[in-house]
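Morning. Coffee machine broken again, so started the prediction first thing and wrote up yesterday's gels while waiting. Chain of 162 residues, entered below exactly as on the submission form.
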Amino acid sequence: MTNHPSFSATNTPGPFGQPVRRIEDPALLKGQGRFADDTHLPGMLEASFVRSAFARAKIRSIDTAAAKAMEGVAGIFVLKDLRPQLSTDQLSVGMPSDAYKQVRDRPILANTEVCHVGEPIAVVIAKNRYIAEDAAMTVTVSSAQRSDLTVLCRSEMWIRAV
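Came back before lunch.
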């Protein structure tokens, strides 16, 4: 340990307890902030996701016909549509520690089952977000809700209670 004043436990520099100047604050406080949603380019399309209503379910079928027929819809994609364009169909999710054990790599869109409410199942691309959201609501996902409960024990072994 050194006697340098900046290493003193009572005189530690840093952001804790100190005001931090942020360059974006003046614009945000004046209502002049710019966000990704404010960007509009010629020919730009917008997306809306079809999401799971269930915490755990097996997907039987996905019917996109009604959404595809809507004016302004450019495309609707499920995982099988996107696979040929992808180098991997998994989202790699980083964990804060190697000690945290969880199945991390989920498919970019649910294919055969969903594991949480809100998990994306399909994506609708349309002329604007309102059309995309309306079309997403017409996509019918037939699924069988699963009644089993999966619990992680302290010993980090999986137990399935039916």
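The CA atoms of residues 65 and 139 lie 8 Å apart. Going to sketch it on the whiteboard this afternoon.
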